[in-house]
Design goal:
Layout lengths: L1 E5 L8 H13 L4 E7 L3 H8 L4 E4 L11 H23 L3 E4 L5 H10 L4 E5 L6 H6 L5 E4 L11 H4 L2 E3 L6 H4 L3 H8 L6 E6 L6 H10 L7 E6 L15 E4 L6 H7 L2 E4 L3 H9 L3 E4 L5 H11 L4 E2 L7 H12 L2 H14 L4 H27 L1
Helix pairs in contact: 1-15, 3-4, 8-10, 11-14
Length: 371
């Protein structure tokens, strides 16, 4: 059986898809899987490192504000559609699974024309633009938050929705707290604060962390993913502050070791922290991230500093309050864990297998009938 995956633009559209692929391959290594993404996009770099076949297409982005780039990108989207059509026509997968992002839309449209069944998955609290453009053509729409269905008014979409949760790679679930703390702490009784700004880093978060350093106590140790702007923060490195551009194999142990995590509010990251039962301070971007964060804030599962409140004074106050209150940290960690479904990777792999099995049986029955 052959399955095509598509999605990209950010790690939140890529890593959950890889988690599903891991679960599929753990069930049956005979699956023929490939990924459709943007030529020279982030997904190409990440997917090729996994040794999965990568099929590149041209991609454009539809912005929800006036921009001349919308005109040029429209031609890229059209070209991307024909790229995707050619790939899918040649490969003829039994199913297309879309993780969203602007690059996924041409593949979904091409798959629909070729009568290839389409599954889409939404990581955020509300359907993103790419998934709204894809939803009419999807056979099933999987969501990460149960309340997402309340945001969808079209009956034809609602009847296709299934609550699955957001997939997380198995490797991240296997983090070793002892190894992580031994790597980063000089003393076991120190408090480890992990700072993550998403796959591109986040200058606003980076600056808040650097601004906090003058009042940092000796028992507070920061391990900070700075992203693309790493060189600007390397000069602040000291015994209690460790800036690093990116984390790789050590990330699972680091998340397990952290007492507090400061992060953006991407749905994939939230799910990872929930499964690992972490106490989290979210600094969301406007849009989907703020919607993700607000839902968790309303459930008293996290601390949230919204964009208009993200100044140094507020950040220092909230971080100090959480650092001084271990019982509150435990409450946040437990509440967040209980809100998030933690078996989405295997759930979605099973849904794919059921679809492939059913379509295979229908195809066989048709062959028998036609004889």
């Amino acid at each position: 059986m052959k399955v095509a995956f598509t999605g990209g633009g950010t790690g939140g559209h890529i890593y959950p898809g890889l988690a599903i692929i891991e679960a599929l391959q753990a069930t049956n290594t005979s699956f023929d899987i490939f990924w459709i993404g943007e030529i020279h996009g982030m997904e190409e770099k990440i997917i090729t490192q996994t040794h999965l076949p990568f099929k590149g297409i041209h991609a454009g982005k539809l912005r929800r504000y006036f921009s001349l780039k919308n005109i040029s990108d429209l031609f890229k989207i059209i070209r991307g559609f024909f790229d995707a059509y050619a790939i899918l026509y040649k490969e003829r997968p039994n199913l297309l699974f879309s993780k969203g992002g602007f690059v996924s839309v041409p593949s979904v449209w091409a798959a629909w024309i070729l009568r290839i069944p389409i599954f889409i998955h939404e990581s955020d609290y509300k359907l993103g633009l790419a998934n709204r453009l894809s939803a009419p053509f999807a056979k099933k729409i999987f969501i990460s938050f149960p309340q997402t269905i309340d945001q969808i008014k079209r009956p034809s979409w609602r009847e296709k929705i299934i609550y699955s949760g957001s997939p997380v790679r198995a490797s991240l679930k296997q983090g070793n707290r002892f190894k992580g703390r031994k790597r980063w702490l000089a003393k076991e009784n120190q408090t480890l604060i992990l700072v993550m700004g998403g796959s591109q880093g986040a200058k606003a978060i980076n600056d808040l962390i650097v601004g906090y350093l003058p009042i940092k106590l000796q028992e507070e140790v920061f391990v900070h993913q700075t992203g693309l702007l790493h060189d600007q923060y390397q000069s602040y490195a000291c015994d209690g502050y460790h800036p690093q551009a990116y984390f790789h194999d050590e990330l699972a142990d680091l998340i397990a070791a952290a007492d507090i995590i400061v992060s953006r509010a991407g749905a994939g990251a939230i799910t990872e922290f929930a499964i690992m039962q972490k106490s989290v301070i979210l600094l969301p971007l406007l849009g989907h991230q703020s919607e993700n964060a607000k839902w968790l804030d309303d459930q008293h599962a996290v601390e949230v500093i919204y964009p208009k409140q993200a100044n140094q004074e507020n950040f220092n106050t909230i971080l100090k309050r959480l650092l001084s209150n271990p019982s509150q940290r435990r409450h946040f960690a437990k509440t967040l864990h209980n809100l998030i479904k933690d078996d989405a990777d295997s759930f979605l792999a099973s849904a794919i297998i059921q679809e492939l099995t059913a379509s295979s049986k229908i195809s066989l029955d048709q062959q028998i009938t036609n004889r």
